[in-house]
Design brief:
357 residues, single chain, signal, Immunoglobulin-like, 5-stranded antiparallel sheet, CBM2_carb-bd_dom_sf, Collagenase (Catalytic Domain), 17 strands, 2 domains, CBM2/CBM3_carb-bd_dom_sf, alpha+beta, 27% strand, CBD2
């Protein structure tokens, strides 16, 4: 944080950037197509153990980095894997690419294998997702953008998120490899903020069942850093471009009474890119995404930062840097920071207080 602009300045600046970027005409581009097919075969089986091979075919646009998920029946467990890093939590299994097989072009395939154990029966899993997209053998657009800039139709996301919730996105530029630490880490930060708000207010917000929606961006990192900038100051370019793209691709307004929205993007210019919030929105760049993934500093700093920015999204202004509340520099002391009674009242009576229950 020492190389980054002071957080207490962000709310004022963010209000301006979100309003301005909403008016910028971003290039009209087709949404990235997504689709996949998975063939899971049991290659061998013995008493209490088995070997399996999993073949993945990417039917959509090229991807750089993949994460395949499925659910095992009770009693099945992965023991050893090759050509992939496979982890298991309960019956949920996640396989992530290794360094040499993460890039899959349209129609491209890769495979990996593992040995496992079972008790009772050994059924083949029936449902898989690749980078969050169900592998049905077909292709669907990622989001559903309007057919033209003047169209009055509202884009519909591929899965309808519940209304009156906090909706969270991780936008991954085209040249950034998928890394499961990011959606998992961002989800963990949001759940901690959810706990903290209940502690402080007696009420808290609801997260969607898919806590973090992973979005493959339409551009590479450099585009987000350098496009739609004012002069040489790229501080707001990254989050402004993300904000504009998420609104356009997913039909989200600024603000939007249906959801409070959090967006994080894995792009940042050294010592320049940042983030902030205004009512209904939180926008954060690579610094915070890395922190949530456990890559950049102690977690209490990122927990406190999210609590701070959500405070702005719920309508709070910054406060004095030494007042002990998370709306000041005191958020660095998280969890030893607390909302004042006036701040609690303002959140509960504010435009997004209805999201708390």
């Amino acid at each position: 944080m020492g190389t980054r602009r002071i957080r207490s300045l962000l709310a004022v600046a963010a209000t301006g950037v979100l309003a301005v970027t909403a008016a910028v005409l971003a290039p009209v581009a087709s949404a990235a197509a997504a689709g996949c097919q998975v063939n899971y075969t049991i290659s061998s089986q013995w008493q209490g153990g088995f070997g399996a091979n999993v073949a993945i075919t990417n039917l959509g646009d090229p991807i750089n980095g993949w994460s395949l998920r499925w659910t095992f029946a009770s009693g099945l467990a992965v023991a050893q894997a090759w050509n992939s890093t496979v982890t298991q939590s309960g019956t949920a299994v996640t396989a992530v690419n290794v360094s040499y097989n993460g890039v899959l072009g349209t129609g491209g395939s890769t495979s990996f294998g593992f040995n496992g154990s079972f008790t009772g029966t050994n059924p083949v899993p029936t449902a898989f997702t690749l980078n969050g997209v169900a592998c049905t053998g077909g292709v669907v657009p990622s989001g559903s953008p309007s057919t033209s800039p003047s169209s009055s139709s509202t884009p519909v996301p591929s899965s309808s998120p519940a209304l009156k919730t906090v909706r969270v996105f991780w936008l991954k530029p085209t040249d950034v490899a998928f890394d499961q630490r990011y959606p998992d880490g961002i989800a963990a930060v949001m759940r901690e903020a959810q706990r903290y708000y209940r502690q402080e207010l007696g009420k808290t917000f609801t997260l969607n069942s898919t806590v973090v929606e992973v979005v493959t961006g339409e551009h590479d990192r450099n585009w987000y850093i350098t496009t739609n900038c004012s002069g040489s100051d790229h501080y707001w370019c990254v989050v402004g471009n993300m904000h504009q793209e998420l609104m356009r691709r997913f039909g989200i307004a600024n603000p939007d009474s249906r959801w409070l929205v959090v967006g994080e993007i894995s792009a940042e210019e050294t010592n320049q890119s940042g983030g902030g919030a205004s009512p209904g929105w939180v926008v954060l760049s690579g610094h915070d995404a890395d922190g949530a993934a456990g890559i950049n500093g102690p977690m209490n700093r990122w927990y406190g930062g999210m609590v701070h920015e959500l405070g702005h999204a719920f309508g709070l202004p910054d406060s004095t840097s030494t007042d002990g509340t998370p709306m000041s520099g005191s958020f660095y002391d998280y969890p030893n920071t607390h909302f004042s009674q006036a701040q609690k009242n303002a959140i509960l009576s504010g435009p997004y207080g209805g999201l708390l229950s």
